[in-house]
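PROTEIN–LIGAND DATA SHEET

This sheet pairs a single protein chain with one bound small molecule, guanosine-5'-triphosphate, given as SMILES. Inputs appear in the order they were entered. The predicted three-dimensional arrangement of chain and ligand is reported afterwards as a token string under its own label.
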Amino acid sequence: MTDQALLDEVLGLRTILENVGAYIYTKDLDGRYTYVNSLVCQLFGRTLAEIVGQTDEAFFDLHLSDELRRNDRFVLESGQTITREEHNVVRETGDTRIYWTVKTPVRNAQGVIVGMCGISTDITERKALERALAEQKQLLDTVLNNADANIYMKSLDRRFLYVNSQCASLLARPVEEITGKRDIELLPAEVADHFWEMDRKAFETHARQAGEESYTAPDGRTLHYWSIKVPLDHLGYPDRLIGFSSEITELYQLKEELRRQANTDALTSTSSRRHFIEQALHQVEQARRYQQPLSLLALDLDHFKRVNDRYGHAGGDAVLVAVAGFFRRTVRTADLIGRLGGEEFAILLPNTDAAAAYALAGRLCSGLSELDITLPGPQLHHQKTSIGVATLGEHDTGFEALLARADRALYAAKHAGRNRVRRAD
Ligand SMILES: Nc1nc2c(ncn2[C@@H]2O[C@H](COP(=O)(O)OP(=O)(O)OP(=O)(O)O)[C@@H](O)[C@H]2O)c(=O)[nH]1
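PREDICTION REPORTED AS:
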């Protein structure tokens, strides 16, 4: 190698040492600096000439932290290279800095240790950031694991990427066994597919979805959830979503019970007037769309006032219950029985033409008159009813019109002497 080439190489190496972004230094066996790069000069606030020949005593507060001296001694005595974190207190500023340090012995041609060389990277800020991140993660974990909801992150390929502890206990496995697994590996296929429905919608629309979900647990209990699924597009993860599912089973059951109560007549367990009309409007629509016959019976019990007079109001109630039971046993399950008023009932007959409806009305009328109703006493009562029959026709503007025709037929049955059936025009 020529002198020029050698010089070029040395200059090249020096450029690297000066620009590497780490503290680089060599020391002799007594711990005196023999070389430092310019970053070390900046740290100590001295020139190279002022530093060379000095020990660390001049630049670091070794009473506060002597990790540096212990590490140097270890390298020089053991001849081993060490790679570790080092905490040093800089005399010039009083700051404690954390370094990621590599220290290695320097040997002469005979292999005898004559000093050491070190490269230290300041990781103080990185460590502070790591600590802040760890604290934030701890805080987040505390929130997530104590929130009264199943919280999870799922991917587009149906994998659980995160679950909180409540979600893990629902899936009856430890968190580590859940993360990375697909929903169909953890849940029965139909349950996984049910949950996936809302997930898929969130991924497809790239928008937050909210709604009810249900899950039948292995012990047979059906649990209901209010779920919110938030796609993470805004965080740069279009293939992930976060889900929050809060159990609302009690609320759901309460709501169902309220709905049932609103739809049912408390005394006779037939449909309430409101629910009957709601269903009837729907049936009229269906019948028109599919061109199927639809008939309606309007029933009014005969001389019911006398029943109350004879047996008292409670006796009248017992008769109403017995009559409703008879109607239920006599009609098909697809037919809908409603109590429209005191002793007025209506029966909606889907897919039933005028002839079949008339025949059924006849069976109801005669069957009821023959029914033995035993009242406390015991007293035997026979209840009779008048019935009007109407079948949905082209001229009916809607259910109201059909009901009005059935009512007119009922009135005609009453007028003709009761305990009979009359057809609408
Ligand atoms: N026990 C009982 N009676 C009721 C109930 N709702 C209505 N009623 C009674 O039913 C009777 C209906 O009487 P009306 O409308 O005069 O008719 P009716 O005596 O049945 O005579 P017709 O309908 O003409 O055959 C009244 O006495 C009401 O008090 C109820 O929920 N329970």
